[in-house]
Amino acid sequence: MWKGLVWALCFTMATLAVRPAFAQTSQITEDRPGFSLTLNGQTLRIDRSGPACPPRCVQPMMAAPGVGTVGELEVLEFLEIFVGGGQGLLVDARLPAAYAAATLPGAVNLPAQTLRADNPYRDDLLTALGVRNGDHAGAFDLVFFGTGADDQDAPNALRRLLETGYPATKLKYYRGGLDSWRALGLTVAGKS
């Protein structure tokens, strides 16, 4: 009996320990506060606790049509081949303060907001990315990331680039972002 009680107590403590400190209820996506289904006569409910949605909503795996999604090993290979070879950029789409605090090694900062159509300097940014007078033939290959799977900065940046005619074949999305990178114990650059 005591073994069962001790096991139950340990299980309860372990369950409480993995709950986020910011256990506020949040929506999963802007239009889905939670999910529920019936399985074998039981109702299963999936809710989310954490940062408020919006803006920190869970993002889809595919950020935009034609843009591939990559994981950590693909990011490392991209750094080695494309960034190291001067043919690509690893892009942190978060605001400068977040980028300065911590980012992936080798990343440059290009906040999603700077790619808005109403930014008078957007054409200069496109030129820096290899676009010449609307010609995307020399455009860099880019991998965009943000904080994590609930950060809309990278998907927004990718969609805005596609609106300019940037080829989807030259764009990738690292959905896991800084959160997944850190969770795997990979090296982080910045002040953190």
TrEMBL record:
Coiled-coil residues: none
Residue span(s) of domain Rhodanese: 84-190
Pfam families associated with the record: Rhodanese
Signal peptide region: 1-23
Record keywords, A-Z: Signal
SUPFAM superfamilies tied to this protein: Rhodanese/Cell cycle control phosphatase
InterPro entries per UniProt: Rhodanese-like_dom, Rhodanese-like_dom_sf
Protein name from the UniProt record: Rhodanese-like domain-containing protein
Lineage: Bacteria, Pseudomonadati, Pseudomonadota, Alphaproteobacteria, Rhodobacterales
